[in-house]
């Protein structure tokens, strides 16, 4: 058995910087990856989807050119070219990550499937067919991520379906895309392919899209998508799916009774499940929760001594920036003799529809459930000069403020560049700035940030 100071299993966003940091500190590192360096974000998540979102937005703006006094010819979309552009950027990111690992002395990159065979001991079946290796580490970090959760749906095994990764590989445009799920993945792909030219229908089982958001935010984004021609069925439960000939038929129980939807393609956007089922975690003494996520404490330690889990595999917020913060915690504690934890960390995020929906801190619903004394400052984007000048006046800014201290508790923004504006508020929250401070601040004109002057004065 080959022994290492550190074994990293999987190559999510925490894995690469951890491997480089340990190696730079003189540790011998085994880096085990089943397929592609970079994890979900680089290969099938953030990088390719936001690249395609950008292409879809260009198509949308080109069709709107007349609104700005600019006249163009008819707009068409070449999906094969969109796909190649996306793949080129993914290759650039993935190749850069792999090259950095291969160039770092002290890091041994292994491509294969790893599984535990004992405490901090793994067997790796190598992809090149040369057999397997047994390795052990003083420290083991699990960063194997998650994959699409396949729902229990009658007939699904007989019907070709796509997840987000499959959508990225399409070279031709779906005639009618059925999207099962109204979370952020479903909404981003629904709008993207509607703008490419597909007919799109969303089926969502809850009373609103984005069920974790405030009702006003969900209603506003519903309105945006419906205005672009996307058909949306709420409180609709998919019961079975069939394929008789070419169309895919999805039968749903809706508020109006049973309905049969026919489409050319079916996208499953019904959540994620952790990649732990093949890791033989019990052999390593590593506990999981009922959904298969690795259990960790606030320092990301598992139930097994010397074993840690980072990123999506441990559950909680499944965002790249959270995975990177997991890296910072382990770096601080394992290399810097610190005592960093996940306790109280902010979880900002952005749904990359157009306009974007951005959140940080408490929502209004969450704050009211806690019984906190709050005031809510709200203002439409149609009162923001910069948004009007850009003809991007859809959406609103809503900020939850502690009524006693005037500290900012959270923000929800639906609007152009909402993620950037939300980040301004996150920095203000980190610095403990009050609503009055932002109300009286001098921001450059005309910028989106200057809207904070007016919204902080709103009731």
Averaged pLDDT, please?
Answer: 97
What is the percentage of strand-forming residues?
25-35%
Point out poorly predicted stretches: none
Instruction: Please give the domain count.
Output: 3
Number of strands: 20
Which sequence of strands runs across the widest sheet?
1-2-3-4-5
Find the structural class using helix and strand composition: alpha/beta
Helical residues, percent: 25-40%
Kindly provide the name of the CATH class of the largest domain: Alpha Beta
Task: Tell me what you see in this structure.
Helix 3 runs antiparallel to helix 4 and helix 3 packs across helix 6 (184-196). Helix 1 (15-24) links the parallel strand 1 and strand 2 (29-33). The protein starts with a strand and ends with a helix. With 459 residues, it is α/β, with parallel strands linked by helices. It has three domains: 2-148 and 273-335, FAD/NAD(P)-binding domain, CATH 3.50.50.60; 156-270, FAD/NAD(P)-binding domain; 355-457, FAD/NAD-linked reductase, C-terminal dimerisation domain (Enolase-like, domain 1). The mean pLDDT is 97. The strands form five sheets. The protein has a five-stranded mixed barrel. A five-stranded antiparallel sheet has the order 16-17-20-19-18, with helices on both faces. It has 13 helices and 20 strands. The chain has helices at residues 15-24, 39-43, 46-63, 79-103, 164-168, 184-196, 215-227, 320-335, 364-369, 385-389, 418-430, 435-439, 451-457; strands at 2-9, 29-33, 107-118, 121-126, 132-142, 146-148, 176-180, 199-203, 231-233, 237-243, 248-254, 257-263, 265-268, 272-274, 307-309, 349-351, 356-361, 374-380, 396-402, 408-415.
């Amino acid at each position: 058995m080959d022994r290492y100071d550190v074994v990293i299993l999987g190559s999510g966003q925490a894995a690469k910087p951890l491997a480089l940091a340990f190696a730079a500190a003189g540790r011998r590192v085994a880096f085990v990856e089943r397929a592609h360096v970079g994890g979900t974000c680089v290969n099938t998540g953030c990088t390719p989807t936001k690249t395609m979102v950008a292409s879809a937005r260009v198509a949308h703006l080109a069709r709107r050119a007349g609104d700005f006094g600019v006249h163009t010819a008819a707009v068409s979309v070449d999906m094969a070219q969109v796909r190649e552009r996306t793949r080129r950027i993914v290759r650039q990111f993935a190749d850069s990550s792999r090259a950095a690992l291969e160039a770092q002395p002290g890091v041994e990159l292994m491509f294969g499937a790893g599984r535990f065979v004992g405490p901090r001991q793994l067997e790796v079946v190598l992809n090149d067919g040369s057999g397997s290796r047994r390795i052990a580490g003083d420290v083991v970090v699990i960063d194997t991520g998650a994959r699409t959760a396949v729902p229990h749906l009658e007939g699904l095994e007989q019907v070709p379906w796509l997840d987000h990764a499959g959508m990225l590989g399409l070279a031709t445009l779906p005639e009618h895309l059925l999207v099962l799920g109204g979370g952020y993945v479903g909404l981003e792909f629904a709008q993207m392919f509607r703008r490419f030219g597909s007919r799109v229908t969303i089926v969502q089982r809850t009373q609103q899209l984005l069920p974790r958001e405030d009702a006003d935010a969900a209603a506003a984004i519903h309105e945006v998508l419906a205005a672009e021609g996307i058909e949306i069925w709420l409180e609709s439960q998919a019961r079975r799916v069939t394929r008789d000939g070419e169309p895919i038929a999805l039968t749903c129980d809706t508020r109006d009774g049973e309905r049969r939807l026919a489409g050319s393609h079916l996208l499953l956007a019904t959540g994620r499940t952790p990649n732990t089922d093949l890791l033989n975690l019990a052999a390593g003494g590593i506990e999981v929760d009922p959904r298969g996520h690795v259990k960790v404490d606030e320092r990301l330690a598992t139930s097994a001594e010397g074993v840690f889990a980072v990123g999506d595999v441990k559950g909680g917020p499944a965002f790249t920036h959270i995975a990177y913060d997991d890296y910072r915690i382990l770096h601080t504690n394992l290399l810097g003799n610190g005592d960093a934890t996940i306790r109280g960390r902010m979880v900002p995020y952005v749904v990359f529809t157009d306009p974007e929906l951005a959140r940080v801190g408490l929502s209004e619903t969450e704050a009211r459930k806690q019984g906190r004394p709050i005031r809510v400052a709200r203002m439409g984007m149609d009162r923001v000069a910069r948004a009007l000048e850009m003809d991007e006046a859809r959406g609103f800014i809503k900020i939850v403020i502690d009524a006693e201290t005037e500290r900012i508790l959270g923000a929800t923004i639906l609007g152009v560049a909402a993620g950037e504006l939300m980040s301004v508020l996150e920095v203000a929250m980190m610095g403990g700035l009050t609503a009055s401070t932002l109300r009286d601040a001098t921001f450059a004109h005309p910028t989106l940030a200057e809207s904070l002057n007016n919204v902080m004065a709103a009731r």
